[in-house]
Amino acid sequence: MIFSPIRMSDRDAIDRIRARCRRDTSAWFAFHSLYLWQHTLGLSILLEDDLFVIRYGIMGQRCYFMPCGAPARVRQFLRGLMQTGSFRLFYALESDLPMLLRDFPQLRLRYDRSGSEYLFDIDTLCGLKDSKYHRIRHQMHSIRNKHEISVMPLSAENTEEANLIVRNWFHRDKERPETRVTDLYVTQKLFDEAGALGVRGIVVRLDGAPAGFAAGIPLSGNVFDLCIRKQVTGERGFGTFLYLALMESLRGQFRLLNAEEDMGIPGLRAKKTELRPTGLLHVWEAVYDTSDQ
Question: Residue 63 CA to chain centroid, in angstroms?
């Protein structure tokens, strides 16, 4: 098996295969996610006409994403992998489970709540009409009453403002130092290649000062992936304001927002859960351990 760096020229093939396999709602298998995070996560790709497999280098030598491709070709790949020893598969979707349970009973499956992705109905959240959104409505009303707010589409003219927000966030936020450098690198790459990747987003000013931004990339004609969100104000509810302002800019063009995973971070999980997701894209890890045989 020959695994290679993930290149811009791979985009059409990856998008074609994942759409055929109905993985066009998941950010884990999207070209832009793989491309942007490949150096940080040690990703490389085996790409064929009807299959792609991502090697997950940061997790170990024999670690991969769940293969994405024609079912017969996926089974063939996994059988070949079993002949060469132990391995781990990440981000198997619920739709993969019947095949894995039926054809590969040797695999041990573990539900990965921290890697499961949040899906939000854009129209529902933009409306905030249900009584369950009472607290959020109150926070949004408070922010609008206290501040002069400007919401602008992310563009070449204000990318430097977004970059300033990222730099200020980097120096202001002292939590999770191991991930801040990673976020900084990936964000800069996203800005540098925004045109080629099709990045869309918003920049928000509070009282004339850059306060936060949110940006992402379409996963399909109906689903938008929120790749990054950063703020430099501790204003209560402002993180939620960024979610809603981005969704308002997407309303009528996309049905769902994929807000990606929470990585098991309690505060992030609480924030995303508060917004009442339409559902989760559940994922599993599958382990083949020859020592169990």
Answer: 20
Q: Are 169 and 214 in contact (CB under 8 A)?
A: no
Residue with tokens 């030598």: 61
What are residue 233's phi and psi, to 5 degrees? Answer: -125, 145
pLDDT tens, residue by residue, 212-236: 999 999 999 999 999 999 999 989 9
Q: Following CA atoms 278, 17, 154, 171 in sequence, which dihedral angle do they give, to the nearest 10 degrees?
A: 80
Distance, in Å, from the CA atom of 29 to the CA atom of 18, rounded to the nearest integer, reads: 7
Using one digit for the tens of pLDDT, what is the confidence trace for 62-93?
A: 999 999 999 999 999 999 999 999 999 999 99
DSSP SS3 for 68: strand
In this prediction the pTM is 0.93
| CA atoms of 29 and 21, how far apart (whole Å) | 11
Closest CA to 118 of 198, 239, 27: 27
